[in-house]
Amino acid sequence: MNYLFIKTCHQDFYHSFDFTPVRVLGKGMMGDVMLARSRDGSNLTAVKSFKKNSLDAGLENQKLFFNEVDILLNIKHKNIIGNIMAYDCPREYVMTMPYYPSGTLTRHLPYMTAYVIDKYLLQLTSALNYLHSRQLVHRDIKPDNVLISHDGDAILSDFGVACLVTTTSVSIIGRMGTPGYKAPELSDMRIQFFDFYSCDMYSLGALLFNMVTRRLVSPNTNYLGSVRHPLTDYGAYGVILEYLLCQYPQMRWNTTNLYNHLVSMPHMANLIHEQFGC
Ligand SMILES: Nc1ncnc2c1ncn2[C@@H]1O[C@H](COP(=O)(O)OP(=O)(O)OP(=O)(O)O)[C@@H](O)[C@H]1O
Ligand SMILES: [Mg+2]
After folding, report:
1. Burial class, 271, CB count within 10 angstroms (exposed 0-12 / middle 13-18 / buried 19+)
2. DSSP string of 191-230?
């Protein structure tokens, strides 16, 4: 990690840069994400703080901060949060990022049209393909971690538990994820070795399920058993859901399989041209 990219501040972020906190955008385990405004009002930014407080929590926050910043400073994709800045302040580490007034995908779920579902799915597939091809996994894909831009694009964010895949061993990489989005094999304590890329694909499937049903599901949803309809009932998305939410990781689609399937869907042609110019 190149620590030169993390600026040291001798006062807290707000005093150092003459910003005023406006309101809380989100509360996380490590601290808040605040909307902040510059004194002259010309600049709005989202400020994610990682408190340096009590020993254990402080160390964990430090780990999350360096992890997130290290990854985000080294990648660039139009559907991944960018333009971040990182600061080491006396009481906290701070990461600033562009403010997205439209909020997260969670807020947009009830109003999603088929066009928007297709667009977000395509954009998130492209973002994941970019990450996976660089041996990176996100590990917490869910609607709360996808921001919506002014132009109505999906922006993958919250890279706190993302990591470089150096091994298949869970003892090194860990069993991260959010209930309802976490691949089922990660909760099977007998399994020690994983295809972590495939775990991201499961989470993408759960997110697609949220988009198709226009709502969040309960954390213990068994997509293959306890949902009201078989996955095949979800029209054009049925096959995709089946292959992403598949119980067996070796049968789950990877980003290439998914992209090839999307390209083969006749109604996707315009969208693919619009997004990728091909
Ligand atoms: N750039 C932004 N613009 C607008 N809102 C944001 C932005 N970044 C984060 N938020 C809001 O803050 C919430 C928490 O942010 P983020 O997911 O990065 O932090 P987190 O603490 O790691 O999250 P969690 O622990 O809840 O997964 C988001 O779900 C979103 O509602
Ligand atoms: Mg989050």
Report:
1. middle
2. --B--HHHHHHHHHHHHHHHHHHTS---TT--TTTTSSS-
- Identify whether the C-beta of residue 162 lies closer than 8 Å to the C-beta of residue 139: yes
Return the closest-CA partner of residue 161 out of 133, 188, 185, 181.
Answer: 181
pLDDT, position 99: 98
Rg (CA), the chain: 19
Question: Is 204 in contact with 125 (CB distance < 8 Å)?
Answer: yes
Q: Under DSSP, is residue 261 helix (H, G, I), strand (E, B) or coil?
A: helix
Confidence bin at 53 (pLDDT 50/70/90): confident
Give the mean pLDDT of 184-196.
94
DSSP for 125-140, please give it: HHHHHHHHHTTEE---
Side-chain-side CA neighbours of residue 106 (13 Å): 10
pLDDT at position 54, please?
A: 65
H or E element, residue 240: helix 238-244
Nearest alpha-carbon partner for 200 in 133, 112, 260? 133
Q: Which ligand is nearest to the CA of 28?
A: 1
pTM value is 0.95
> Taking CB atoms and a 6 Å cutoff, what residues make up the pocket around ligand 1?
25-26, 28-30, 33, 46, 48, 97-100, 103-104, 144-145, 147, 157-158, 160
As given in the structure block, the two tokens for residue 90 are: 């006396």
The residue whose CB lies within 8 Å of the most ligand 1 atoms, and thus the one to mutate among 22, 23, 24, 25, is: 25
Confidence of residue 172 (pLDDT cuts 50, 70, 90): confident
Could you give the strand order of the β-sheet that contains 32-38, starting from the edge strand earlier in sequence? 6-8, 85-88, 92-98, 44-51, 32-38, 19-27
Q: Please give the mean pLDDT across all residues of the chain.
A: 92
The rounded percent of the chain whose pLDDT value lies above 70 is: 94
